[in-house]
Automatic annotation (TrEMBL):
Homotetramer. Its main location: cytoplasm. It is found in: Cytoplasm. It comes from Bradyrhizobium japonicum. The gene is dapB. Pfam families: DapB_C, DapB_N. This is 4-hydroxy-tetrahydrodipicolinate reductase.
Amino acid sequence: MSDMRLIVAGAGGRMGRALARAIADTEGAVLAGALEAPGSELLGKDAGVLAGLPANGIKLSADLWAMSKDADGILDFTVPAATIANVAIAAERGIVHIIGTTGLSASDNAVIKSVTNRAVVVQSGNMSLGVNLLAAVVKRVAKALDESFDIEVVETHHRMKIDAPSGTALMLGQAAAAGRGISLDEHSDRGRDGITGARKPGDIGFASLRGGTVAGEHSVTFLGPFERLTLSHLAEDRMLFAHGALKAALWAHGKKPGHYSMADVLGLADI
Ligand SMILES: NC(=O)C1=CN([C@@H]2O[C@H](COP(=O)(O)OP(=O)(O)OC[C@H]3O[C@@H](n4cnc5c(N)ncnc54)[C@H](OP(=O)(O)O)[C@@H]3O)[C@@H](O)[C@H]2O)C=CC1
Ligand SMILES: O=C(O)C1=N[C@H](C(=O)O)C[C@H](O)C1
């Protein structure tokens, strides 16, 4: 099979630059386009040079329709509005869409789902093996422990992150809720401040720390009578997520239309 031709959306961003480096490192993948926001001062710059590599001749452009003509997939780590605009074009072109963007609303997610009867989408708030394994373990533990154990999800990220709780924290909260057989929407405690009252039994709490250059740190703590169990994951470098996204793209190439998760890619969906 010929190399998978991939577009990086948000090519000037932290993940976009990491993705360009990961593609250059990965056999079977080649950079076919670099998308940036209309009006960005980076438009026209070389994607290789921006990523700290030799020039590769791929210039940043805001025209996804044109650059996707001969592409096979798009790796999208941008912002919700951009991802939603990209969904329609990727589906129309029939190219694989790997979505890592977080902070998406319920209606954004409904738009993404709506194309998956005709498009291949892999979406995950975290592309790492470790976090997806952690989610499977959290689900199991939550199933084993009753409401006498409170569940708290804590995440720490770099100072530039714009959304909270992180996509990963929400994914871990969903895993805990699924293990317990409850709806996260109905049992979520976010943003405590002031006189909050006592903790509601059964709620899943979230707390977000921001600062420095932290690539991503997550923990789920089960707090019971006289004991506590904490499960955690530490991302040491965002190249972890870039390599995960590449793995997802190569896995998805040629798959039938559907809405896939990283657990599907990693063979963890049944755990
Ligand atoms: N699922 C996972 O494993 C991971 C997910 N993420 C998520 O990925 C997203 C990006 O993170 P990060 O790289 O740190 O953020 P950055 O802000 O560094 O990068 C986002 C990039 O997208 C660009 N952008 C904005 N609008 C558009 C548009 N319309 N078309 C194309 N590009 C656009 C931004 O440009 P400009 O600055 O000019 O606005 C910026 O360059 C976040 O949602 C983050 O949570 C991050 C790491 C791992
Ligand atoms: O913005 C980030 O950096 C990250 N975002 C993702 C999230 O919201 O969980 C994944 C990772 O933790 C890094």
